[in-house]
Amino acid sequence: MNFKEQYYSVVDIETTGNRMSNNRMTExxxxxxxGAEVVEKYTTLIDPExxxxxxxxxxxxxxxxxxxxxxxxxxxxxxxERMTRDCIFVAHNVNFDYNIIRNEFKRVxxxxxxxxxxxxxxxxxxxxxxxxYSLGKLCNSLGISLENRHRAEGDTDATVTLFQxxxxxxxxxxxxxxxxxxxxxxxxxPPHLDRNVFNDLPDAPGVxxxxxxxxxxxxxxxxxxxxxxxxxxxxxxxxKSYLMCQEIHHIEHIPTGNELVALLQxxxxxxxxxxxxxxxxxKPRAAYQILHYKxxxxxxxxxxxxxxxxxxxxxxxxxxxxxxxQLEQLCADFNLCPRYCSFxxxxxxxxxxxxxxxxxxxxxxxxVSLYNIRAKQAIESLHNQNPNYIIKQPGRNAxxxxxxxxxxxxxxxxxxxxxxxxxxxxxxxxDYIDRKTANYHTNxxxxxYLKKYGEQNVVYDQPLAS
Length: 466
Prior knowledge:
By secondary structure, the protein is α+β, with helices and mostly antiparallel strands. α5 (119-126) runs parallel beside α7 and α12 (259-273) runs antiparallel to α16. The strands form four sheets. The chain has a five-stranded mixed sheet, sandwiched between helices. It has a five-stranded antiparallel sheet with strand order 15-14-13-12-16, with helices on one face. The chain is 36% helix and 22% strand.
């Protein structure tokens, strides 16, 4: 194909928002070209048949009053089809404009299909090393005039000049051909991401962070193979993946050596960054503890309460009903008084609907000292239900081993040690551990691991010295 004798339609549109679904056009400009020569221009406002949000008006200057007398898309569809017929569809960040136009044509019963070229991706390939490839900053760096920014005609005129420069640089058309291949994935690759950053990702377990232009984390994920998982986002056709890919400028990855630590670190990073494109694990889950303390009568009292920083908490649950159920069982097993386990009763425990094994401490029929002996036995039994152990896992390379530490049933963190170092106990691990905060999600991750693998790679231990 001779790219200098090919018809192109350089297009820019303005819309009611930045989402793929329910996003309607408010303005379009199309410049039809033969090679580098401009043949024809068409521009018009379009009534989106929906309200234009204030933030869009603030960006583009297009408001509801301006489009009130404009044609609807159905009235201009034929002209748009003519201006792009037998042309390669060109735009800066082409997938956005192209998909919006395709959706508009679907609404009027027409299947719009054109070959595409993206001036963002072409610029990255043909003009490497620029600080930014956004249209405004790229034009400023290259000395291209850009007037009426964020209006269709102004942005299209600037894109035409940029496209002419790209045609001139790619004299033999090899780069253009690369991006037009039918089986090429270049068209779905994030337009603002340096491909070398992606190429450097390993085929190994770890966590990846997608960042926007300001290097703010917008998504955190985990993978058994970092490169394959990241690539799957780029080729996904969901609206969420598309929108996310439009914002990706940088990728950071953290090798973990194994899936378990990748899952745990993903949960920790989501909790820390609260990324906009992560939907799972963002909602906080309340945690409940079984507590014990001596009341004014000197009797050991039990209760279920929200996690704070109690000195006398025994066990943590992420479901209040489970905590209550365990306390009920404790009460029954050790003949404790329902009243002093904080269950609803009248003056004594006899009114409780379920528990009736109290020996009478609430009626002063049993010595407090004898009751407290059983209460302490109950506390000890709960501690015994929460084992101390480490889970051994592969390290990030052949020279190291990884461990995950759980103390009294609660996730503590993980660490990496030399493969020749002995980690047969929690004491061996305490100097290497990267301490983390347990939450509902880390609890579920470890529970799922133990359910799937049982006691494989699990080493039980006594508590660490405080």
